[in-house]
């Protein structure tokens, strides 16, 4: 089994190029795979490796005073859910597109998984899912509002158009691992919302800590790696991923005439060109031939979604 760590930390970083080199060196030494994003506002990513090596990576990070309290969630995968290690420099570790939003200066109130049910059951609290439409589609909290966004950049517009701080003074938000709702909470405070709460550790921590019989979560949680989705106790979920668009797909989707293994699904069939479908068919053919030889064909990588824990 392979250990998977989703991690992030909002903290001011001046020497991002130096940190990039250090993280690449550590990753190569420890045979780590996955993606890490580095920006002046912090680090974010999901990585996988042998358990001892993942703990060594976390230990080295925590030895740096900037990351002594780095937020991370651990889970398992049957195999590496990534092909290689990437350490990339970015303007933001999670992109909201508003430079004034600074989680290193102010954020909302953290809510533990144990207290979350009480908060979102309060009729005076409006509950917002800060994730994107394809994530919300396979699972969310009971009575949560779906902003129907394609990217996190669209979240501020949704709030401006639909959520009046004079009408809704109490807001609770959540996301996969805590990073998007932490940044969103900073934005909401900036917009004049009085009481802003966000789920500490995100959905992953809630599913890990909350007994299923007490849970208000419905469905699976989409994750940005080859496992596609996780369920309660962070067990593997019930979804596969479409190679054409990386949307999570169900058995029902696979029975659609628009589904073709390794090529398309009902979400993307009409958006792909014939040239794109032909390339995908050839890749799928090569993958099946490699499997017959007992080899793994990595070929072209899947469409990029990026780490958004």
Can you put this structure into words, describing what you see?
Keywords: Oxidoreductase, tRNA processing. The chain is α/β, with parallel strands linked by helices and 309 residues long. The protein has 9 helices and 15 strands. The chain has helices at residues 16-29, 51-62, 113-120, 133-136, 155-162, 179-190, 202-209, 251-254, 274-292, and strands at 2-10, 33-39, 42-49, 71-77, 85-89, 109-111, 126-129, 139-141, 170-174, 195-199, 217-219, 221-222, 229-230, 240-241, 248-249. The strands form 5 sheets. It has a 5-stranded mixed β-sheet with strand order 4-1-3-2-5. Strand 12 and strand 13 form a beta hairpin. The longest helix is centred in the last third of the chain and has 19 residues, at 274-292. The radius of gyration is 20 Å and the shape is globular.
Summarize the structure.
Helices cover 29% and strands 22% of the residues.
């Amino acid at each position: 089994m392979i250990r998977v760590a989703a991690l992030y930390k909002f903290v001011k970083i001046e020497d991002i190029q130096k940190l990039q080199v250090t993280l690449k060196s550590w990753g190569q030494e420890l045979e780590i795979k996955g993606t890490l994003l580095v920006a002046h506002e912090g680090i974010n990513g999901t990585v996988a490796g042998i358990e001892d090596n993942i703990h060594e990576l976390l230990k080295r990070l925590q030895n740096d005073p900037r990351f002594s309290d780095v937020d991370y969630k651990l889970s398992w995968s049957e195999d590496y859910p990534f092909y290689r290690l990437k350490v990339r420099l970015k303007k933001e570790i999670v992109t909201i597109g508003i430079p004034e939003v600074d989680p290193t200066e102010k954020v909302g109130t953290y809510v533990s998984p144990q207290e979350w049910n009480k908060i979102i059951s309060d009729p005076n609290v409006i509950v917002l899912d800060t994730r994107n439409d394809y994530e919300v589609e396979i699972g969310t909290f009971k009575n949560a509002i779906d902003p129907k966004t394609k990217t996190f950049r669209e979240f501020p517009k949704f709030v401006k158009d639909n959520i009046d701080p004079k009408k809704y003074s109490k807001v609770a938000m959540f996301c996969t691992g805590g990073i998007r709702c932490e940044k969103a909470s900073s934005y909401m405070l900036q917009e004049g919302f009085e009481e802003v709460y966000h789920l500490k550790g995100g959905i992953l921590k809630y599913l890990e800590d909350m007994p299923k019989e007490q849970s208000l979560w419905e469905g699976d949680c989409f994750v940005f790696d080859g496992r596609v989705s996780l369920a309660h106790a962070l067990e593997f979920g019930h979804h596969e991923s479409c190679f054409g668009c990386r949307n999570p797909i169900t058995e029902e989707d696979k029975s659609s005439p628009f589904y073709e293994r390794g090529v398309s699904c009902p979400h993307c069939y009409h958006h792909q060109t014939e040239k794109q479908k032909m390339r995908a068919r050839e890749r799928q053919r090569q993958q099946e031939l490699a499997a017959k030889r007992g080899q793994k064909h990595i070929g072209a990588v899947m469409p990029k979604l990026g780490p958004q824990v």
